[in-house]
Protein 1
Amino acid sequence: MSIFAYLPALPPFLFSALVVSGLASKILHIALHIRSLPFLHFVLYSPTLILPDLFIITCGRVLLQFPAPESRWQWLSTCVGGFFSLVTWGAAAIQFGFFLQTGAEVDWTASNSFLSDPAAMKILLTGIWTVSAAGIVLGLLAWLLHSKLYNWTGHGLEAIRDMMLGVYSACRGGYHARYTLITAPNKSWINSLDIRSARRTALLVSAGLSLLFIEIVRPAVPYDHLSTALPLSLLDAFTKKTITVEGCRNPAKAFPIWTNVNPVPLKEGWSRPSWLPQDTPDGFSRWDVDPYKRASEDNPSWYLCSGGDDGGFFNPKSDPLKISNLGDGIYEPLKKAFEEHSVAIDNVILLTLESGRKEMFPMQQGTPLFDGLLASHSEEDRNDAIDRLVASTRIAQMLTGEHVKDSQGKLVDLANSTWRDPTEAGMGGLNVQGAITGSTLTFKSIIGSHCGVNPLPVDMLEESGLEIYQPCLPQLFDAFNKAKSPVQPRQSEKVERRDAASNQSEAVEYPWKSVFMQSITDDYDRQNVLNDHMGFKHQVVKSTLQNPHSKYRAKGEEINYFGYAETELKPYIRDLFQEAAINKTRLFLSHVTSTTHHPWGTPEHFKKVSYMGDEGTINHDPMNNYINAARFVDNWLGEIMTMLDESGLANNTLVVIVGDHGQAFAEDNKDLTGTYNNPHISNFRVPLVFRHPQMPRIHISANATSLSIIPTILDMLIQSESLDKQDSAIASAVLPEYQGQSLIRPFRTSILENEDAEDGNKKLAWNFGLINAGGAKMSVTAAGTPYRLILPIKEDSEYVFSHLGTDPGELSPMKSWSLSRLADTVKTKFGSEAAAWLEDAEKVGKWYVNDQRRIWGYREA
């Protein structure tokens, strides 16, 4: 039989696919938000939510007529209608597949960044099976209903057409239908205007007017977002955005709550800082050009439209969010160690743990996560499960100094670890408990840890095309190099760490070398561009491991869609440590792990352990794979520390360990998993460790972010006299410029704006965390308070409040589309103080979004 015999059934099927996919997508869209909608309002406004879908259905039915052979226009309309039907069908399949994987819905406004990124497409393809299954189900349903939907809709549209034209006919004369919407006998419902049809017409008109009235009076938020039809929302995926750093920046807006910080006016008579090297390093342009001239003579557009006292540039003296603790004393044990010159920092290693959760660094009892893991085991198996779980992160125990107990109350045996900590008891550096990430998107988080800046509150890594407003660590070390006379590296045996006469390291004269390493691709979301902007001149990434001319090529298989296991970097890291030890260079190494990224694959030779039980209805395989991947990375950290010991650098090296973000699973929250568009607290708690064997062990309780990493490193370098005079001048000058606090001093959760006044206003240490992909919503917290607000950046999600003091696992957050309604609920349950905090958090958060875009010089069109 010819294929053309099936063509008459094709338009009805395509139309049915359009209807089924569109309406199913709308039902899912509403269902994901229905808990936060007032019931009576939802009942009242729900009829208007499908009006855009009815419009799409009508257009689709008109377009999708089986074309007659002689009608070119009908062929064209059928092709156009078929195209939109197939796109809607595919988009609905993606939406359902994504929901089945994560519990969230797709943000189509961010999808254009994924569609244009080959590495990102690999992430999307990991869910191809669930998407395909969803597409097949929608297709089968569309096929079962295609004839009825096609004919019913056609008859309905004919009835409406004939009713309207019947009224017209009664007034102007006879009427004959010129075409039909379905291949059925041509007949009209109305040949003359009678009482029955008049009633129908009046009823239809009344219903239409009522819907129109409800549509007009309904609140824009959230009903405009809920009513959007899928084909219309897909248009956002093709929205083109442009960014610019040229032209004028808007002046800073007034801080929304009381503060005595005011913009610092630009002044003539500026002089170039004496500490700034003549050959200005990248990242220091803010100090290199007269800000007054930059805002006027050199660029007239700045002068004409800036209008701000600081020219629109970042100015820490005008930053109302900045709280400094540099005037406070250093922790006494650290102060003693610095005064005795027992701490030397010749090298800095910054290890970023992909999806590194604090609850698993180390894994220990007493956390909401651990309770969730045990819930998967039967009562008789729980002791064995506890012993397996607490033994999964032995290296983390040694690095943090948090020694964990097993099911019998005994300390976990660390004898079989990949590294044995040689540090004396009571030594090891700073372990921060309570740290949270600044973004659940990896590279936005890295900007905070490497550059000490808050990320840009827009989707994906738009920062890669903008000037970073503070010097990053490689740029700081490059500034140290340029400030001194070149020192020729020489081959020789290692010398004593300290010069007895000067009490200062010989290494203070050595040049720094900054190296970035990861075993995966650096092409994803323009990371390679960002690395260049941050100042990394030496990099080892996936392309290096695959290059046939590289010194060491990868020997194993790729373990995920990004690249290889971290152990492929081992020979490169060993050589780098040996070079620093023998050639007299100071090393800054940034290494990002990746095995703990979805899909949590490990090398074939790595023996997996069963950590999860079978209790409950949750699929525990993802969590089990994640714990195994975390154990693999834990072992890898042990190998790095072993290489550091073997090279002789350990006693002179500061190792900073931080998680880029957490990772939510069904054991945390059954509704949402993963990091994408997921605000759950498990995605925000991260480890933060400053490991040094000659520093006393101090456990710090602080809701700090990665903004504190650079200030802490600089403060340590200065206080330990690990810099020469010129480098110390540079470090001392830029240290107060950073927004974060130094963690070698007590962390300030708040200050009084006027400390001399008894009723001075309290200024809180606000923390902001962007939620992957960065431009839809963010977390707002304040150090020292238990409250948390999820603030919509776009008007397509709810306000969410949680009290982490009473609900640390965030199992029962409060949601509302209205802040005032949410504040009333919070006041009833937690009191007026919590409600007042919530209102302040919303004001500060909205101000922060606009101010960060101003500081970065970001514009979109």
Protein 2
Amino acid sequence: MAADAARAAPRQQGDLGPEAAARLSAWLRDYRTLPGVPDELFDVMRRPRADWLNLLAGFAEYPETESRSRFAAATRHIRDTGVSYRVYGEETERSWPLNPLPLILGHREWAQIAAGVEQRATLIEAILQDIYGPAKLIESGALPAAAVTGSIDFIRAMRGVAPPGGRHMPLYAVDLGRGPDGRWWVLDDRTQAPSGAGYALENRLVLSRAYPALYNSMNVQRLAPFFDGMRKGLVASADRSDPRVCLLTPGPFSETYFEQAHLARYLGFLLVQGADLVARDGRVYVRTIAGLKRADVILRRVDADYLDPLELNGSSHLGTPGILEAIRTGGVAMVNMPGTGVIESRALLGFLPKLCRQILGESLKLPNVATWWCGQPAEHERVDREFDNLVIGPAFNTYAGSGEKSRPRLIADLSSAERATLRARLNDRPGDYVGQEVVRLSTMPVLRGDRLEAAPFVLRVYAAWTPEGFRIMPGGFCRTSEIKDVRAISMDASARTADVWVLDDKPTESTTLLASKDDVKVRRILGHLPSRAADNLFWLGRYIERAEATLRLARSLCTSLMVSDSAIHSSGETLEGLQQLLIEWGALDKDAPAGSSLEAARCTVRDQDAHGSVIYLVRAARRTAASMRERLSADFWALLLNLETELTDAHRAPQSEAEALEQVESALQILAALSGLSQENMNRVAGWRFLDMGRRLERGINACRMARTFAHDDATTDDLDLLLDLIDSQISYRARYLVGIAMIPVRDMVVLDCFNTRSLAFQVETIKHHLKALPTLQDDGMIEEPLRLLLPLSTDIETTEASYLTIEKIRLFEKTLMYLSGAIADRYFLQGATAVPTIKLASMG
């Protein structure tokens, strides 16, 4: 703490200690800028800029080992909380790549950027108002009709529709790069469904944790006011005072799903997929366990073409049938409005400078990359004449055969045959292409090891409409390239990210998203749980419990075959029953040789292809949890990832039965921590009830299966002893029965004992308590199907005497639990087109 306090104020080079000064000098001396390319660290006279020098001096104060350990500790947060992204076409997610150094922008320069972004957002909103309104720009010839209607993102169904709050585009983002002349240039407009704001939050969290004193001392402007304004703007677009705001995601396979979940959690919005919504009578509703609940505002991250399979892309599974009609009738506010993506077409870029002068009466403060749409004869001729020196790109956001959005092509990088093919296509359909000037981006310093290197970068800045007007995020989302190519066209290759620190000239006040006491109505129920979330939580509980049960079997397998005097169940039918149960569960191959304990243990725990193995179940749990990250704490997610790492680490592959047993015990401890976390840290609302019901149902089924396997009529003492091990009841049994192990009391403890937390009876009573606490769809007083199945089962268990408990009765209990699982799904997991609750829509809130 004292060391942190000493570094509270950034120092100049002369104020540093010898080691820090030498380190900073080496950074500056060895830093190599790219020829003819401006750099953020040095001015035109190759003098370090003051703000950057202060930052680097602060970093130099940390010894190399401490700096690395601080950043490593902070970036562990990235792994532990699953901060990730997905590259298009890849099945697995990648961990979020973050540079230790932020991009630094002074307050004066930032004021110019913010003014330019606000002007551009205002201009684009005016163009959208005209395109989907009177169309005077097209009528006057200021904007060619083909440049608008040729875009797949132009939604004719939205013409004449009044947007909520009077704005088509409440959220806007723009990609900027600094050109050779030192000015900031617009590379791309993001008007469809701007992404990355959640990642900007994560970048800020990691760096502020790694270097808190440095962060506070440099007067970095906070991000919270932007998000507060954004949230207020979304709420203001609704027609109710207490609206339900949803964030519509394409789902867990989206490239930026984590960011969407993080943003929904941070802003307090409901994260939904298209199947979670239903459009009825001009309104949109969320499918919840309590029936359909109205969605007032939808912040979408789904491209407009996929929103409504009835009116737009009929093959879409990401949208909701009828949602466009609900938008047209004003039954839901959509942000951004469908059709705003038309502005992202490169065909329009070349018209914006003239339109700005015509509409706003002023020149663009942030100029475009020079762009010529080839749908005009003069521009086509110019592009054809300068073909070899340009970037040729699609005029509209079309898709290549792979499904990926087609990208601009730098002619200088193409072969002769590729150039000829592209030129022929351009001349055949010139309106489909634009020519653009090759942009050479400026560079910024990044740390690689202990060296400071120059990297090209692009800055994404966000604007959100609030009741007070546009608010610009002070900072944004910065991407850097690992490749020493400063042409904007190459920024997608090997990209990393950096936080963006906008410095103020005075200390900044701490801000939060806390509302005033008069703005919030007290609640003790966290809204209405979407059916999909209930489904996922239910199965998350089942996967975790099934993994625990399999680990207990694996533990018994290890101890059964260890060569020692204390080994138990070492031969005979007990071992066969143990292995047979593992085979039935899909955790062990049926051809596994008996007595091969180490291989059997390895397969049970680590076989990634066996559908019943522990690692298979843990990965299923992780995938299920990934689809609802906004509902799980960072600690829960970290434990789940630690468990997967524990079971897949090649260096931890067991080489002996003792090592296999140690790994199993370690995994069981992590599962115990997960269980404790869910019991002690989750609010007792519907989400927790479904998670716990999944565990209880799975545990009850497993108790029945284990009882049938090891407490059959011809069971031996070893069988019954193993069964007590599997249900973790050895201590309880021996404290209660001093005469030794006997069949009837063991069956009673496993199946009928309501005081044993591992028994079937305890699970049934707990599930009954959960079901009675959940909402009902009808108010006619009739019992719903899950309780209709469960109540007779509960009564049967309560009234059965242990001496009359047979294997057939246990089998009947197990079948009833299986039916109960289906009844819970049918009642609460309202998905699909035919899943319509019986409650009247008119009475829904």
